[in-house]
Design goal:
Layout (H helix, E strand, L loop, with lengths): L3 E5 L6 H11 L6 E3 L1 H10 L4 E9 L6 E7 L5 E6 L10 H21 L14 H10 L4 H12 L3 H14 L6 H6 E8 L1 E2 L11 E2 L6 H23 L2 E9 L7 H15 L6 E7 L6 H9 L4 E4 L6 H6 L6 H13 L5 E7 L6 H14 L3 E6 L7 H4 L8 H17 L3 E6 L10 E5 L6 H8 L4 E5 L3 E6 L4 E6 L4 H24 L7
Parallel strand pairs: 1-2, 1-3, 6-9, 6-16, 7-8, 9-10, 10-11, 11-12, 12-13
Antiparallel strand pairs: 3-4, 4-5, 13-15, 14-15, 17-18
């Protein structure tokens, strides 16, 4: 009989912490909260299919004794910490209590189940490097930080070392508060693709069926670009990096693609721009005309993303190109003078083995790209893969072996890891890592992850992240994902975005966008 999981706590704000840790160990389970009055009843049933977890507190409003008891798995277990919860410098009381609860529960389950489902322990955020930067700002050494990550979050030493190494490599790229007051990065989202990949959860729409909406979208985007340009010019704020993503921007027809780049150039390109990236992404959208246009308008970095070099996998995930197309387009881009090319691959694609990943890495190594971004498959809501029942899920040990092979291959190509982020529902509870040759790190990727520069998002589903220099306090707002809503209501979202940006440059008190 399948086990049923219940948890009990007088604190309702602990419920999310329970679910997060339980689903690390049992990802297909939906744990159920029960009242304290029902705890003894379930325990007395002695039903081996029930797993009951209890968090208890002593004291009044504060947690003075925080503990976890586990019933129904091998035997009763208990862990507790006496005394008040020790908060981290950036934690509020409630968040510190939840972290301690996650830590205790993780340790208890690891002990009794003899498994460790995530090398990241109870660290749940997208950006673990931000924690390292906070600690570096306080003067801690690399060794002290690695020990801290282990004690506070149960992070394994390999991941603690990795995330610390990456943060140290980024330090020279982070802006000072004064620099952050004078510059921004620009993100432009183009929500169209040739087709929708099986794993994709991004807002993107097949361009073949979009019709006149494509031109309407680009006309609206032009108005938004002009308004943001006027805002920045009035305040004498420079653009440091430009990133055009989506979607697949190169899926646009040639004439519309050229007009888009002309609009961007007129508004944002200047001597201060250090990097200009376009997600070419799908090799089947890259042509000589597109490459020529990108070179003409100063694009300095592009992505050509195979995801896998196995034809069977490309067919399975809905990609309409061949591995040979990736190679021919890559060499064509080199002929056009692109000296900074990124390639994306995915570990954990359905049906792939470590041997498949090794084959992909061998073919990529022969091309010698400047960046290699290794994504771990994350099966998210909104993707076709999530909607399929019974799809082939790659085992944790296989995914971890793949990522180990990627790290070794990147090192053999002369690359170092330069940015990292995590997502929910990742295979093996792992991470995404960007590797780069020396002096080829993507400035925008560092900026979007470390959140020490304001990024203004334009286009459908684009996020604006406004950062208050010095305190690095963050506010964000988003454009709508739906293209029709964006076209009809862009002025409303533009007004909110520029009001938020204005507050940041005036350094006013935080307001929610």
């Amino acid at each position: 009989m399948d086990k049923r999981f219940f948890f009990c706590s007088p604190r309702t704000d602990f419920h999310t912490a329970f679910k997060e840790i339980l689903q690390l160990y049992f990802p297909e389970v939906e744990p159920t909260a029960i009242a304290t009055a029902d705890l003894q009843y379930l325990h007395n049933q002695q039903d081996s299919s029930n797993v009951i977890i209890e968090a208890f507190t002593e004291g009044q409003d504060e947690v003075r004794v925080c503990g976890v008891r586990l019933y129904g798995v091998l035997e009763v277990g208990c862990l507790e910490r006496k005394g008040e919860v020790t908060l981290l410098p950036w934690e509020k009381s409630s968040s510190g209590e939840r972290r301690i609860l996650r830590l205790l529960l993780n340790q208890l389950l690891t002990h009794y189940l003899h498994i460790s489902p995530s090398p990241w322990g109870v660290l749940r955020g997208i950006r673990p490097t931000k924690i390292v930067h906070r600690l570096l700002d306080r003067g801690l050494s690399a060794c002290e930080i690695q020990g801290f990550l282990n004690r506070a979050y149960d992070v394994e030493s390999t991941k603690a070392n990795l995330v610390t190494e990456i943060a140290l490599s980024q330090r020279d790229f982070l802006l000072s508060p004064d620099q952050a007051r004078k510059s921004v990065s620009i993100y432009i989202g183009i929500p169209f693709c040739p087709s929708r990949c099986l794993y994709c959860s991004f807002p993107s729409f097949p361009i073949g069926g979009a019709g006149q909406q494509v031109e309407q979208f680009l006309d609206t985007l032009r108005h938004e670009i002009t308004a943001v340009h006027n805002f920045l010019t009035k305040r004498q704020i420079e653009v440091q990096t430009i990133y055009v993503g989506g979607g697949t921007p190169t899926s646009l027809p040639n004439a519309l693609f050229r007009q888009l780049l002309a609009d961007i150039a007129q508004a944002f390109q200047g001597t201060a721009v250090q990097e200009y990236t376009i997600e070419a992404g799908r090799p089947d959208t890259i042509t000589e005309d597109k490459l020529s246009t990108m070179r003409e308008y100063g694009v300095s970095r592009i992505s050509i993303n195979p995801q896998s070099m196995r034809q069977k996998t490309l067919v399975a995930i809905g990609r309409s190109h061949r591995p040979e197309d990736v190679e021919s387009v890559f060499w064509l881009a080199r002929q056009f003078g692109f000296s900074s090319i990124n390639m994306d691959i995915i570990a954990g694609l359905p049906g792939e083995t470590p041997q498949d990943m090794s084959y992909t890495l061998e073919r990529i190594a022969a091309l010698m790209p400047d960046n290699l971004t290794v994504h771990t498959l994350a099966v998210k809501r909104g993707s076709v893969l999530k909607e399929l029942s019974g799809f082939l899920r790659t085992e944790t040990d296989i995914v971890r072996a793949m990522l180990g092979d990627c790290a070794q291959a990147a090192g053999e190509m002369g690359m170092i890891p330069y940015y990292l982020y995590r997502q929910k529902y990742m295979a093996g509870n792992m991470e995404n890592i960007g590797y780069a040759l020396p002096d080829k790190s993507c400035l925008y990727n560092i900026s979007i992850m470390e959140e020490r520069q304001t990024i203004l998002g334009l286009g459908a589903a684009a996020a604006t992240k406004a950062v208050y220099p010095g305190s690095w306090r963050l506010e964000s707002c988003h454009n709508p994902k739906d293209v029709s809503t964006y076209i009809n209501d862009y002025k409303l979202y533009l007004e909110r975005k520029l009001a938020l940006a204005d507050r940041v440059w005036r350094n006013e008190e935080e307001l929610t966008c």
